[in-house]
Amino acid sequence: MLVWLILIGTEPTAIAAALVFFFAAITDRLDGYLARRLESTTRTGQWLDPLADKLLISAPVITLVALGRFPLWGAVIIVAREAGVSVLRAWLGLHGRSMPASPWGKAKTAGQVLVVFLYLVPLRDAAAARFWALVVAAALTVWSGLDYAFRLDRHAPVEEP
Known about the structure:
globular, 6 helices, mainly alpha
């Protein structure tokens, strides 16, 4: 539905897309908070929640790039990091391991949510704000990806001799 609203491209559907995206981001955050608070986290949830986050961010970013409304360089950084981390998580999962999100990963997600929201909302004279928000989100995206890679050793499967 979000991609469809973006593709229609009118001002009312752009506002609707921004609201759908914002609601999805808030409910995702609430879901994670409640799972931790109620101690009802599962390995499956630890794998599926980040995947849902990646889809929530990547789908509108790729759609906006296709429409010429989001910088390609920003999309490449975001999508490449998300794909790389997904591969690492899948590899760990195949070996019975998982890696919880780090504070950097949470900051990255918040930055990306803000950027996507800014690019979805039909604001006039917002080019500079969008650009600098994207620069910060891209930096957080790269840093959190590096942090994830450096933490891999602590969570990697133990090789049998």
